[in-house]
Amino acid sequence: MFERRIMQKRGKSYCIFFSFIKIFVFSLVLGILILTLLARKFLEPLKKILASINIVEVKHQKKDSDFDVIEKSINKLLAERNTLMIEIKKYQPVIRNNLLLSLVRGESSDNEYLIKAL
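-> structure tokens emitted (118 positions)
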């Protein structure tokens, strides 16, 4: 009703102006709706990663972003892996000697596996 009064007083230029405003508002609302749906779709894999990371105990604060939590978890896993590799290398000669002894004594049931392990 307000638009009609203004359109009658001012003419076609205001009619075009209000049409552009309507199109702009409609496009803006539609764009926000589409962006919201796309954001949810693209954040879904990130949420799955965060859910699987909960297995690893990482101290994180609420202000940490999801990417910070993922980075801390990966760093912790890499540190644990390095520690385990050091332990394996540390005990590798002992394991090798035990395997050789079991081969010499004939205690092993799967000799091919043991030879490959050496």
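The mean pLDDT is 80.
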